Each structure stands twice: as C-alpha cells, then as structure tokens.
Amino acid sequence: MKEIETMRKKLEEQESFLQSVLEGIGEGVVVVDRDFKIIRANKGYCSQVKMGCDEIIGKHCYEVSHHRDKPCYENGEECSVKEAFETGSSHRIIHTHFDKENKPIYIETVSYPLKNESGRIVSAIEVLTDVTGRFGLEKNLKEKVKELEEFYDMAVGRELRMVELKEEIERLRENLKKHKNL
Fold this sequence. Notes:
alpha+beta
C-alpha cells in the first residue's frame, strides 16, 4: 500500500512539473492527438485564442484556431501537426488563426511528434508564437518599399525627361544660331 502511495505521489509530482514547464513557456503550447483533438493546452495558448482552457480541451485544433469543421489542410493550408505525424520530424509554418471574436492572429507554429514506448507517433506538441505585430511591420515595410520604388521610378523618369528637354533646347539653340548666321 505504501508503494502505491509513493508511486501516486511521484506521478503527481511529475504531472505538476510537466504543468510548470508548459506554463513556464511564454508561448502558446498545445498537445494534439492523431484525430487533431487538443488533449492539453497551456495558458499562453488559451490567451492567444481568448478562450478558457476548459473550453478548448477535447475540441479539434482547427475548430479552435480556424473556426472550421474540418482540418486546415483540407482547405489547402499547410498544417505543421499533419507534417509532424507524417514525417516524424518537426515542422514550422506561419498560419492565420482566429481568436474567439474571429479576429485574425498571425501565428508561427512549430510541431514536434510525440512517440509512445514502442516508437509510434501518438500525438504532437505544437508551439504557437503570435507574430501578428511582426507580420504587420513586415506588411508596412513592403508597402513603404513599394512606395519608394514608385517614387524612384517617377523621379528617374522625370530626370530622364529633363535630360531630353535640355538636349532638345541645345539642338534648338544650335539651329537658331545656324539660322541667324545665314
């Protein structure tokens, strides 16, 4: 009986340690089974999607993240979890997820396969980093670069036109001189 109590206590300590690790990671973390159901989520992920962890556990990841009734890869999107299941290695992508209010969130996801004792992949851990701010900055930067390129093209075009006009004025002066000398 004492052995069972000792094992139970060790199991609780391991569970507590695992939960501390998951919560200590500043990013969103979920564990997804082969049916794409969320079997574990940390507070970082719950905060990203603006839902309580109790609302998330047992739901499909695509229901929570994409507000869809089928996996994202069936809609033509890349899925890091699916890749982890299929290849047995980690996979990284940028995804558009949606929070509870259906507001888009740009997420970098990295999925890692989790294997059982016999080496079979039974689930995947997915680390989700909100890159919405970075995505917005990159979009603004691309717009500014485009504006600068357009301005450059306009300025160079104008400069070339000015050179052509100067050359035309010079030709006209030469012709005028020739006609005055006649």
